[in-house]
């Protein structure tokens, strides 16, 4: 579940491009450079910055925590599916063994009921899988929303007008990639995000 939805990251890029002049809550320390210009330590001065969205999420403390939780939910569902599969197999075997002792109509009624049970069980388990997938999508949306002020601040410090998805840029200097810097700053602000989710930790 580590792949980002293209629409989510496209929305992020658009939001950043449109809000580069907006009011920002974070302040970074600045040092004067030769020639009177102001530069940030470790930050490229560029009109266009790039970022690796998948890495930004998966290597952040927030993303690692979210993915651990999703993997745990997936493991529980996998174990549950295996248990249910074993139960249904046993029930199917028992029904097959009884076939020779039953009238055809009676057997057909039991077989139809069993088939309906299997289909309903599959729908229920598929819904649980969709809910786990939705957890991942919601975590990414929450991460984008919470990270936006940090990325806006980096844009302001770099004097950039946009942050683009690194994979969509044909040619750029490596110095323009701010993924590692963004991860460090987002981690400093968000941590793993667990306290924000339940408000009690």
TrEMBL record:
Organism encoding this protein: Leisingera daeponensis
Signal peptide: 1-28
Protein name: OmpH family outer membrane protein
Domain of life: Bacteria
UniProt entry keywords in alphabetical sequence: Signal
Keyword Signal: yes
Pfam families registered for this protein in UniProt: OmpH
